[in-house]
Amino acid sequence: MKVSAGSGDRYVVGIDFGTLSGRALVVRVDDGAELGTAVHAYRHGVMDTVLAADGRPLPADWALQDPEDYRDVLRHAVPAALAASGVDPARVVGVGIDFTACTVLPTLADGTPLCELPDLRSRPHAWVKLWKHHAAQPQADRINALAHERGEPWIGRYGGRISAEWQYAKGLQLLEEDPEVYHRADRWIEAADWIVWQLCGVETRNVCTAGYKGIHQDGRYPSRDYLAALHPDFADFVAKLDGPLAPLGARAGGLTARAAAWTGLPEGIAVAVGNVDAHVTAAAAQALEPGRLVAIMGTSTCLVVNGTRPAEVTGMCGVVDGGISAGSWGYEAGQSAVGDIFGWFVAHAAPAGYASHEALTEAAAAQPVGAHGLVALDWWNGNRSLLVNHDLSGVVVGLTLATRPPDVYRALLESTAYGTRMIIEAFAEAGVPVRELIVAGGLTGNRLLMQIYADVTKRPLGIIGSTQGPALGSAIHAAVAAGAYPDVPAASAAMGRVDRDVYRPDPERARAYDALYAEYRRLHDHFGRGAEDMLLRLRAIRNAARRAADPDPADPAAVSLEVVA
């Protein structure tokens, strides 16, 4: 049924900034009806091999973006979504955004990205570091070792490991590999907060990214003494990332005249405080109640769940007071590659006749559980939880001359479900219950994958009732910022939607998966918990070979890698 705009209705716009594109969604305030959407692909996509400015090669494990691509989403996707909706822009009362995280950039004091300065455009460290920039693993290792050595009180809130994806590891890499750019950066800011700054002209820091990615706990950041012990010039790092902290759903400011011209929206309407794509989706899925775990499944998977108290969960991305919604302790975990793994197999490993998700899924679905005789590790882009090590890599065990492409494909699907089950069990062991799994994101359309998740996790699986979960969640927060609802839970109840218990675990298949999951855990611990460092050695050999073959490395200050002994 087509939803039409009413002349007296109020509307909000949610904008979801993803890994490859940005999407705008026009939503009715009263009931969350979605009236129009548009997508704008980033012109530069992800720069992971060469720098767009001059074509220079990038080292291994880099992933950069151009902030101008984000502004183009405002210029193109928002007006297109408005046109598609038929909504009078004058009826729009607020706009909210969500972003991938930790996606971070260095700027001047006025918010100008350093990569937009003419003399820095050829300096890779001046550009946006996307969430999956994993080249700061050595810095992350030192951050963690020093935190445990000093007994820093915050390290337990992050499962004992700070990720290479987050603000501090990336910031320390910037300092050590390009100190000039580091010292010229007045601000080190999440892209979520930067784009809000672009919209309303006011710099804010949202409590979600500050807590999960910025190590802000109990009202403070890591101490100056700790940071100086990492590097003397790192002592001032907090001054670059600190800013006015604002709760989720709050009004950051009013839309500026410049941003109104970009978007076609009325000047002065409410701009909501920024948020993370995964965390904002919990409101869209009506999953703010403790025990409802939301898995936002796309290129990677982020898992978020509210709890009633703080608990230290080994290998988690963090627990933050109000990190998902005010009044609860929000827990985050994740898997660094999910859809990316399946996409890699289709693009690079599947032969003719099988080179599509549809063909592979159909053939894989015909197999009984365990018939392929395989088990795989889902570390093709490192491990975010529980091991928090992005130097780890994928593994497939059990290959024979009888193995066929659908066998491997199904094993890869199952490996990601096993990774999710390990995260759920870690929550449960720490006293954070997970009673229900709700899935959002682009992978919900694969019925085989969804049933595998229900069978492996032994939990009912619901599906968000929107194909635009993050954008809808941002629109919900915009409605609160505009004063249409008193708080996010109230807006979520009215505007969010979910279909519960769409997939239920089959007892027979669940028992069969128990045996395979036991093998996954053995393989996981063998390669991931210190029994065998082969994957780390292989990564070091690869990186050393790439550096030796690059006559003009993009980060000339970087030291050469040595092969792990």
Automatic annotation (TrEMBL):
Recorded GO MF terms: ATP binding; D-ribulokinase activity; ribulokinase activity
Family assignment from sequence similarity: Belongs to the ribulokinase family.
Carbohydrate kinase FGGY C-terminal domain ranges (all copies): 294-482
GO BP annotations, alphabetical order: L-arabinose catabolic process to D-xylulose 5-phosphate
Keywords from the UniProt entry: Arabinose catabolism, ATP-binding, Carbohydrate metabolism, Kinase, Nucleotide-binding, Transferase
InterPro entries per record: ATPase_NBD (IPR043129), Carb_kinase_FGGY (IPR000577), Carb_kinase_FGGY_CS (IPR018483), FGGY_C (IPR018485), Ribulokinase (IPR005929)
PROSITE patterns in alphabetical order: FGGY_KINASES_2
GO terms under cellular component: cytoplasm
Protein's UniProt name: Ribulokinase
Pathway annotation from the record: Carbohydrate degradation; L-arabinose degradation via L-ribulose; D-xylulose 5-phosphate from L-arabinose (bacterial route): step 2/3
Database matches in Pfam families: FGGY_C
Cell cycle among keywords: no
EC number: 2.7.1.16
Catalytic reaction annotation: L-ribulose + ATP = L-ribulose 5-phosphate + ADP + H(+)
